From TrEMBL:
Its EC number is 6.3.3.1. It comes from Rhodoglobus vestalii. HAMAP family: AIRS (MF_00741). GO terms for molecular function: ATP binding; phosphoribosylamine-glycine ligase activity; phosphoribosylformylglycinamidine cyclo-ligase activity. This is Phosphoribosylformylglycinamidine cyclo-ligase. Signal peptide: none annotated. It is found in: Cytoplasm. Its main location: cytoplasm. Pathway: Purine metabolism; IMP biosynthesis via de novo pathway; 5-amino-1-(5-phospho-D-ribosyl)imidazole from N(2)-formyl-N(1)-(5-phospho-D-ribosyl)glycinamide: step 2/2. PANTHER family: TRIFUNCTIONAL PURINE BIOSYNTHETIC PROTEIN ADENOSINE-3 (PTHR10520:SF12), TRIFUNCTIONAL PURINE BIOSYNTHETIC PROTEIN ADENOSINE-3-RELATED (PTHR10520). The lineage of its organism: Bacteria, Bacillati, Actinomycetota, Actinomycetes, Micrococcales. One of its GO terms (cellular component) is cytosol. It catalyses: 2-formamido-N(1)-(5-O-phospho-beta-D-ribosyl)acetamidine + ATP = 5-amino-1-(5-phospho-beta-D-ribosyl)imidazole + ADP + phosphate + H(+). InterPro entries: PurM-like_C_dom (IPR010918), PurM-like_C_sf (IPR036676), PurM-like_N (IPR016188), PurM-like_N_sf (IPR036921), PurM_cligase (IPR004733). Belongs to the AIR synthase family.
Length: 368
C-alpha cells in the first residue's frame, strides 16, 4: 500500500513527520526542566521520577492537580502568538498545588490540535517549560494529538497535570485558620486564565478585534489580554520555609472570583469581609466592564480583579509576610481579617465547588 493510498494516515490528515519535528524542536526546552530526579530523560512512553527522597519524610502526602487554560487559547490563535499560553497552564495547575503547602515535583502536558504545526507546538511547550523551570517543576512527559476533522487546522487546546508533596503536619488549610487571622491579597498580573468567554463576548458585542489598538487598555487588544498568569509557587515556598507556621491557608483566585475561592479555604462558621477600598483593580478590568456597560462589582464572580492569590496568616506575622512577598516582586496588602463571631450571613458567599467552608463578601467601594 502506497503512502498516497486513501487508507494512509497522511490521507486522513495526520502528519507524523510534523509530529516528530515538533518533538525535536521542544526537546531542549523540556530537558532544561529535568534535574537529577528525572529518570530516563526525554521521549519515553512514560515519565519516570525518582522519589526515593520521600523516605526522609515522616508522613508524606502527594498532592495533584489538573487543569487547562480555557478559551484564552482562542486569543492566542487569533493573533498567532503561542509562547505565553504555556505559562498560563503552569499557573493554573502548579499554583493549585502550593495552596495545600505542597512542593511541586513534576508535570505532564497534553495538546490537542487540528494540525501539527511544529513551530507552534514548540512555542506552546517552551512556555510550559519556562513556567516549570520558574516553579521548580520537572516537565517529565506530554502528548501532542492531531485531530483533523474534529478541530480546525489552527485550533488547539492545552491541559496539564502536576504532582507535589507535603508533610502531613505541614498541610495548609481551614483547620489552621483562627479568629483574627489577617487576609493578605497577592497581586495578579491581569486576567490570568479565567473569564475569557466573557471577555470575548464583550469584545464581539463592541466589534473590537484582537489586533485592534485600544489605548485605554494599554495597547494591542490581543497582546494585552495574553499577559501571562503570574506564578506564585516559588515565592510562597520560600515564605513557608522562612516563616514556618505563619501561613495558615492559601486560596488560588481562579474561576468563581475572590469571594468564592476564599470561602473554600475558611472553616465553617468563620467569615471575612474583603474591603474593596484596599486596592484599585487594573485598567484591563475597568475597560472591559465599561465596554460591557456594567460595573466592576458585577464581574466579581468571574474575574480576579487584581488579586491572584490570597494568604491567610497569623496576625503577628502579617507585616513580615507582606514584606517577604514584596521582596520577591509580588505586591501584597491586607484586605480583611477572619472573624469567628456569630452573625447573619445574608449576602455572603458560603463555600464553593462542593466545599462547605466559611463565608465571604466584598464590601465598600474600590479605590480609584
Amino acid at each position: 500500500m502506497t503512502e498516497n493510498s486513501s487508507s494512509s494516515y497522511a490521507a486522513a490528515g495526520v502528519d507524523t513527520a510534523a509530529g516528530d519535528l515538533a518533538v525535536e524542536l521542544m526537546k531542549a526546552a523540556v530537558s532544561a526542566t529535568h534535574g537529577p530526579n528525572v529518570v530516563g530523560g526525554f521521549g519515553g512512553f512514560a515519565g519516570l521520577f525518582d522519589v526515593s527522597f520521600l523516605t526522609s519524610y515522616r508522613h508524606p502526602l502527594l498532592a495533584t492537580s489538573t487543569d487547562g487554560v480555557g478559551t484564552k487559547v482562542a486569543i492566542a490563535q487569533a493573533i498567532d502568538k503561542h509562547d505565553t499560553i504555556g505559562q498560563d497552564l503552569v499557573g493554573m495547575v502548579v499554583d493549585d498545588i502550593i495552596v495545600v503547602g505542597a512542593k511541586p515535583l513534576f508535570m505532564t502536558d497534553y495538546i490537542a490540535c487540528g494540525k501539527v504545526v511544529p513551530a507552534r507546538i514548540a512555542d506552546i511547550v517552551a512556555g510550559i517549560a519556562r513556567g516549570c523551570s520558574a516553579t521548580g517543576t520537572a516537565l517529565v512527559g506530554g502528548e501532542t494529538a492531531e485531530h483533523p476533522g474534529l478541530l480546525g487546522p489552527d485550533d488547539y487546546d492545552v491541559a496539564g497535570a502536576a504532582t507535589g508533596v507535603v508533610e502531613a503536619d505541614a498541610q495548609l488549610g481551614p483547620h489552621l485558620v483562627a479568629d483574627g487571622d489577617v487576609v493578605i491579597a497577592l497581586e495578579s498580573s491581569g486576567l490570568h486564565s479565567n473569564g475569557f468567554s466573557l471577555v470575548r463576548h464583550i469584545l464581539a458585542n463592541n466589534k473590537i478585534g484582537y489586533t485592534d489598538r485600544l489605548d485605554d487598555l494599554g495597547g494591542i487588544v490581543g497582546e494585552v489580554l495574553l499577559e501571562p498568569t503570574r506564578l506564585y509557587t516559588t515565592p510562597l515556598l520560600s515564605l513557608l520555609e522562612a516563616q514556618p507556621g505563619a501561613v495558615h491557608s492559601l486560596s488560588h483566585v481562579t474561576g468563581g472570583g475572590i469571594a468564592a475561592n476564599l470561602a473554600r479555604v475558611l472553616p465553617v462558621g468563620s467569615w471575612v469581609e474583603v474591603e474593596r477600598s484596599t486596592w484599585s483593580p487594573p485598567s484591563v478590568f475597568r475597560v472591559l466592564s465599561e465596554l460591557a456597560g456594567s460595573h466592576l462589582e458585577s464581574a466579581e464572580g468571574t474575574w480576579n480583579l487584581g488579586i491572584g492569590m490570597i494568604a491567610i496568616v497569623a496576625a503577628d506575622a502579617a507585616d513580615a509576610t507582606i514584606a517577604a512577598l514584596e521582596a520577591d516582586g509580588i505586591p501584597s496588602w491586607e484586605v480583611g481579617r477572619v472573624s469567628m463571631a456569630a452573625r447573619d450571613f445574608t449576602g455572603f458567599e458560603q463555600g464553593a465547588k462542593g466545599v462547605n467552608g466559611g463565608a465571604v463578601r466584598l464590601s465598600g467601594r474600590y479605590s480609584d
